[in-house]
Amino acid sequence: MEVPNRMYIEGEWVTSTDGATMPIIDPATEEQVDTVPRATAEDLDRALEAAERGWRVWRETDAWTRSNTLRRVGALIRERAEAIAPVITEEQGKPLGEARGEIMAAADQFDWNADEARRIYGRSLESHSRSERLMVIHQPIGPVAAFSPGNFPVLLPARKIAPALAAGCSIIVKPAEETVRSCLYLAQACHDAGVPAGVMNVVTGEPAQISTHLIRSPVIRKVSLTGSLAVGKELMRLCAEELKPVAMELGGHSPVLVFEDADLEFAAETAARAKFRNNGQVCIAASRFYVQQSIAEPFLKRFVDVTQSLRVGNGRDPDTDVGPLCSRRRLEATEALVRDAVDKGASLRTGGGRPRELRKGFYYLPTVLSDVSAEMRILQEEPFAPIAPIATFNDLEDGIEKANASNYGLAAYIFTRDTATLFRASEGLEAGMVGVNNMVIASAEMPFGGIKQSGFGREGGAEGVKGYTVTKYINVRL
Ligand code: NAD
């Protein structure tokens, strides 16, 4: 199967009208491995016209047909996992095993939303009058513009495409510039599963140009972004001018509270492995660890041991636990965050630089810092990097206060064996999602999303598909 590297508009694979391209770089070797088109205004207009036409067809397609089509998309993605995984690794850097896991999670999105397509329930109500009949129905909102980041290049666009199509919308996706081809496999699966032309489209190119062009068009009825806070604010400004509804899945700064009654060995092992998954480039990755004073030293020691056991290398090597960062920009940001913390008095427990034996590639060693304090950038900004800052807390109240001292509110984690602590902490933490003795919490059947500056709207669960519908009230006088 050929690696898809063109845009997908109205059921066709196209280059840009002026032939312009952008490079795809392998972060493990820093070499260019491919190119993808850079869309022109004309290409974007074509995608908009396609999405408008596609929506007219798809909204008239019955829910059972939409459901069956989505299930076929999920099946094709699973069947093609072995072809897709190396492409994710090549352009994003994550180990092959993680890439395979991501593909299965993307297929789950289609399976889950195939069911949701048939469960977009309306309701009928009793009126004041016997000569009136009252109904509420939920209809597709219309063509969607979706923007997704590069850290999960297949899963994150799937989280938008599957519910949008389940609801009867069409969609134009703009994937992250570094990881376009991984996302194009979703277009290929939709095409082969029989999604009609124009319902699903992928355009690639310069982000600000594409977002401005699409959001300003009257064709687009809804915008959905997964990305950083800075880009979120930018897209919200554009949507405000056009008064368009928008869903925002933004960054996080997720805290972990480890209570003294926790299983220390399990907590340290689980937390360290979860922290460095995808090199810390996970929106719900733990970014701050608070350990109850009495167990702080043994926790730190075990956490460092596990961190040092992780093998850094090319994601294609089956022994690799941690691949390169996805871009030079990320590598430089990581170096700057560690420098800032160390300059302000943090102790470097392990890592803190590039691995000596890997001369090429955007590699950075998994890093653990202690003696961290609130003025360090690492405790304020979303790191999106393989850096674990570890601090302490005294009691439940102190722990919750420290955990909530952030503008973000995406995920939070607790390690405890005490039932009262479990409930008090999970209810007190300001986050859209809480994991208790578990840090792998994302799944298609649960609503994913944040509060505060982590955004609004939910993807997955029963909530996901609702984001792509509008409510209509119908009053019938007999
Ligand atoms: P980013 O914000 O730089 O990019 C995200 C998307 O926005 C990409 O498609 C990018 O091309 C596009 N973009 C960039 N500049 C733009 C502009 N001016 N106008 C329009 N679009 C623009 O994010 P990134 O560095 O690729 O990814 C990391 C961020 O995504 C982190 O903040 C992370 O927490 C967040 N994220 C959130 C979730 C979630 O579900 N909440 C999931 C994964 C990642």
Task: Please provide a written account of the structure.
This protein is an alpha/beta fold and 478 residues long. It has two domains: 7-250 and 454-477, Aldehyde Dehydrogenase, Chain A, domain 1 (3-Layer(aba) Sandwich), CATH 3.40.605; 254-443, Aldehyde Dehydrogenase, Chain A, domain 2 (3-Layer(aba) Sandwich). It is 39% helix and 21% strand. It has helices spanning 41-58, 63-79, 81-92, 96-117, 155-167, 180-193, 207-216, 229-242, 264-275, 296-309, 328-343, 396-404, 419-428, 461-466, and strands spanning 7-9, 12-14, 21-26, 31-37, 123-125, 132-140, 144-147, 171-174, 200-202, 222-226, 246-249, 254-258, 286-292, 347-350, 367-370, 387-393, 408-409, 411-415, 433-436, 451-452, 455-456, 469-477. It has a seven-stranded mixed sheet, with helices on both faces. The radius of gyration is 23 Å and the shape is globular. The structure holds nicotinamide-adenine-dinucleotide (NAD). Nicotinamide-adenine-dinucleotide binds at residues 147-151, 156, 174, 176-177, 207-208, 211, 226-228, 231, 234-235, 249-252, 283, 382, 384, 410, 450.
